[in-house]
Input
Amino acid sequence: MDAIIVALSGFWLMLPAFVPNSAAVLFGGGKPIDLNRSWRGKRILGDGKTWTGLIGGISAGIAVGVIQMMLGASMGDKNGLWGFGSLPTAFGIVIALAVGSLLGDLTGAFIKRRLGLQRGAKAPVLDQYNFIAGALIAVILFFPSWFMSSFVDGASLLGLLTVLIVTPILHRSVNIYGHRLGLKKEPW
Ligand code: CTP
Ligand code: MG
Output
């Protein structure tokens, strides 16, 4: 029972990083971030990375994190705010997770273009982990003690392992669903 709670809490803490990736699909469609520019004959990022997707996705991730903190506060967890810690640090952590997530996604696209892969082409591992890696690097850099106590120390490591195992499955399921709904071009 305890193990399930730890596993779920890892997932809960990463929600502000998961949400931007899906939300970007809903907000996309505007101007590409690289403004159609190329570098060494290949697009810098490609048409799949837009300003509206980036800003909409980050905002959605932050909004979800704020709702999570408000739920924590409404349950009387003022100092722990249900895992993100007390304000204002908790807010910083949520921002780092959401921004880091989509910076990881942009880095993934940059790498794909350098490898000569077209927008939307499959890139195993990179496609599934770019955003989680970006979010984790952001909190490791800016909130290392929160990262250690929430994802490394003692039993919390199980939460991190759960996130790493569940992410590709969740990523694939959400994309298949988004594809069926006509929101996403490819089912991956
Ligand atoms: N999207 C966006 N802006 C972002 C990220 C995503 O507009 N910063 C939208 C785009 O419409 C994109 C869709 O979300 O096509 C799916 O995102 P993703 O699978 O990450 O992009 P791909 O189209 O697969 O492009 P790439 O090959 O560069 O990963
Ligand atoms: Mg893709």
